[in-house]
Amino acid sequence: xxxxxxxxxxxxxxxxxxxxxxxxxxxxxxxxxxxxxxxxxxxxxxxxxxxxxxxxxxxxxxxxxxxxxxxxxxxxxxxxxxxxxxxxxxxxxxxxxxxxxxxxxxxxxxxxxxxxxxxxxxxxxxxxxxxxxxxxxxxxxxxxxxxxxxxxxxxxxxxxxxxxxxxxxxxxxxxxxxxxxxxxxxxxxxxxxxxxxxxxxxxxxxxxxxxxxxxxxxxxxxxxxxxxxxxxxxxxxxxxxxxxxxxxxxxxxxxxxxxxxx
Length: 262
Ligand code: 13P
Prior knowledge:
Distance between the termini: 25 Å
Strand order of the largest sheet: 1-2-3-4-5-6-7-8
Radius of gyration: 17 Å
Largest sheet: 8 strands, parallel, barrel
Bound molecules: 1,3-dihydroxyacetonephosphate
């Protein structure tokens, strides 16, 4: 079986300006250092607003931090008359590793569908970025018991036309919409159900090696108090953390889940 390095990614959403970003990343780096965080054992990343990226890059480079950073969205296009959009090439020039694509807030407020997420995944890959493709069902879908087919349809659409080698390097984040910012975390069993279904589907679409290589994260009200239980599940390879990632001490604790007692 492939060994997948767990990834703890903090999605700051539209919080923390560039000055606050510097202070927060400094505190996070200290908090991780205090706990002697082993970055080889658990990767840590922050997905920050576009306007924070240059400041975060400068800090990470100057202090040689092992922290990775990324963006929360990207244009489907490389350049041209797309007012207000941000090219994946610009992100790549800023040392960006990850980019979230198809977050439920983008789907909900900006009408992003599978055609859009697929185009953005391709544009990100074209610039050497690692897409974190976000999928997950709304409450009404779960109440009807259709969370698996719903989420897999989002997955299929997002992956359309990609090669196995491209998919193997991807990160998929399962974020049930009803668990985002609500304090209602999916149970570890709920997270495992979908993480496993996602991996099985990738195995069907591609092959077993690709399915074993791809990292599947869980997102939705992850905190230091529930992360360790989620991480016991075999197909859950990390977390996409919203609110709790804004507090550097708390996010560092999440990243150190391996030292928690269950
Ligand atoms: P919360 O952790 O605040 O629920 O947000 C989850 C999320 O949307 C991460 O992308």
